[in-house]
Amino acid sequence: MNKIPGTERPFSFLDFLNVLKKFAKEQNVEALDSLDYFDVLLIEGEKKLENPDFYIVSKTAFGGCEGIYSDFYIVWNGKEERFATAKTLEESDDAFLAMSLMAAKVCLIANNYVKHHEDQFNWKGFDVQTERDGKLSPCGWWCPSLENAKARAAMQKKDCPDAKVFIRDNATRKRSEFTS
Question: How far apart are CA 51 and CA 10, in angstroms?
Fold first, then answer.
């Protein structure tokens, strides 16, 4: 049985690129059909996306000896890290513009996906969540350690005594009610 990236395990760079390619194809992003390849860098393919604090950018350039490349970068911790490259053998100005537009659309798809599926990228630390009337609050608190999470949960319990407060270990996805 395949484990689902983002729900049962963190996304690798390769998992994330496959999601982006799927959505780009579904949205009929132009220039995908003219690509020679669109692959994750082999060295980086198994790196994990365990924190949603990143965004995707692209850079398009003419190749040194042939074609046009669009490189995709994950920007996190103030650094750009190249994780994928798309290439076409075409070399015209129109092909360059088409590659640039395709790359920009893939970046939009990526950044929107992360924004709307943030929890799939949240695999570190602990979340403190409040539940009232059987409904989990849409906002919560991220804490780097269990001690911080317990302190935040105690504050929440004090501020909202009628609510249930939960601590979730993001690495295991296990959630337990805070009592104290």
Answer: 9
Gap between the Cα atoms of 86 and 58, Å rounded:
10
Query: Per-residue pLDDT tens for 82-117?
Result: 989 999 999 999 999 999 999 999 999 999 999 999
Token reading at 18: 């496959």
Separation of alpha carbons 146 and 128, rounded Å: 10
Neighbours of 128 (CB within 10 A): 24
In DSSP notation, 109-171 reads: HHHHHHHHTGGGG--SSEEEEEEETTEE-S--EEESSHHHHHHHHHHHHHH-TTSEEEEEETT
Distance, C-alpha 146 to centroid of its chain = 24
* Prediction pTM value: 0.82
Strands 126-132 vs 164-169: parallel, antiparallel or unpaired: antiparallel
Sign, CA dihedral 89-91-43-82, equals: negative
* Alpha-carbon gap, residue 83 to 153, rounded angstroms: 37
Identify residue 121 by its one-letter amino acid code: F
Which of helix, strand or coil describes residue 105?
helix
